[in-house]
Automatic annotation (TrEMBL):
The lineage of its organism: Bacteria, Bacillati, Actinomycetota, Actinomycetes, Micromonosporales. One of its GO terms (molecular function) is oxidoreductase activity. InterPro entries: MPAB, MPAB/Lcp_cat_dom. Residues 57-228 form the ER-bound oxygenase mpaB/mpaB'/Rubber oxygenase catalytic domain. Pfam families: MPAB_Lcp_cat. This is ER-bound oxygenase mpaB/mpaB'/Rubber oxygenase catalytic domain-containing protein. PANTHER family: ER-BOUND OXYGENASE MPAB_MPAB'_RUBBER OXYGENASE CATALYTIC DOMAIN-CONTAINING PROTEIN (PTHR36124:SF1), PTHR36124. Transmembrane segments: none annotated. Residues 259-305 are annotated as: Disordered.
């Protein structure tokens, strides 16, 4: 198999009808590391929104179990991508996601925004740091894939074109990325989580490196001091050097979707575990009433804690 054979396969497929296969090839074989990093930063980006970070702070999950919340999200989304959202395992993963979200009240726009980051943040990352350019079919397939997932999550009013969904995302960020103390709180928990994956002596450098990867709007919304310019510049040079080297690697022969050998909460997953074994616990008893979903709210009024 040649280095660009999978890209040629993607080019031969229909980005709407074959969106699942294209997304599986792109995220599971061509750019698995990039998708993982990009989706980490995509979720991080959503914490710049006070209405989202306020709910996350109220649940206490990011304070008490940040690694489990990260692993649950990664594994459940991985199940849907690996097996398909309409497969038995995909449906089970969606059921877990919807059950967790259904316990909380959050606006449809916030839910829609989180979904948009899963489409466009990996595209932005790979455009900057991918070993090859994304084919237009990969971009459109990601849109159609997450649009299908979003519908199954009960999210309303998902734009019906790639460009209109992107316009929604950009407009939403312009309106809602403002500083709040809960942004800062959840942002710091997340930076500390990233740092905890490394040996103690390296953790200060990791925290600095994460700040170096954030854009000005995110830094302001989190209330973080910017890292020195050389930090972001050094990270960019390293990531582009990695991308150049990967051009000479052989293509990945099998997908890594649905595998998570390094997750810390569920070692060896899946093993004997099923998607139903994952997920957040019920809301704490002292959760303020404003965050609890009422019986009058529809499925599009659920949140993503």
């Amino acid at each position: 198999m040649g280095r660009y054979d999978l890209a040629r396969r993607i080019a031969s497929l229909d980005p709407e009808q074959d969106h699942l296969e294209i997304y599986q090839i792109s995220s599971g074989r061509e750019f698995p590391w990039d998708y993982t990093r990009a989706l980490e930063f995509a979720l991080f980006r959503t914490y710049c929104v006070p209405s989202i970070s306020k709910l996350l702070a109220a649940t206490g999950e990011f304070r008490d179990r940040p690694q489990r919340r990260y692993d649950d999200t990664a594994l459940l989304m991985g199940e849907m991508a690996a097996h398909g959202y309409d497969s038995p395992r995909g449906k089970e993963a969606l059921k877990v996601v919807n059950r967790a979200h259904g316990r909380y009240a959050i606006s449809n726009d916030d839910m829609l925004y989180v979904l948009s980051t899963f489409v466009y943040d990996p595209i932005d990352w790979i455009t900057r740091f991918g070993w090859r350019s994304l084919h237009p079919h990969e971009k459109l397939a990601a849109f159609h894939y997450y649009r299908a997932v979003g519908k199954r999550m009960g999210i309303r009013d998902i734009p019906d074109t790639y460009q209109s969904f992107l316009a929604f995302k950009l407009s939403y960020e312009e309106r809602n990325f403002v500083f709040s103390t809960t942004n800062q709180e959840i942002g710091q928990y997340t930076v500390d989580l990233f740092a905890a994956w490394f040996p103690g002596p390296l953790r200060p450098a990791v925290r600095l490196g994460v700040r170096g990867m954030l854009d000005d709007r995110m830094l302001r919304a989190f209330g973080f001091d910017p890292a020195p310019a050389w930090v972001g510049g050094g990270a960019e040079i390293s990531l582009k050097a990695r991308a150049y080297a990967l051009r000479f690697f052989p293509p990945r022969r099998r997908s890594v979707l649905g595998e998570s050998k390094r997750n810390r909460t569920y070692p060896g997953y899946p093993g004997a575990l099923q998607p139903s074994d994952l997920g957040a616990p019920p809301p704490p008893d002292d959760l303020p009433a404003e965050f609890r979903r009422s019986s009058r709210q529809g499925p599009g009024d659920i949140g993503m804690p």
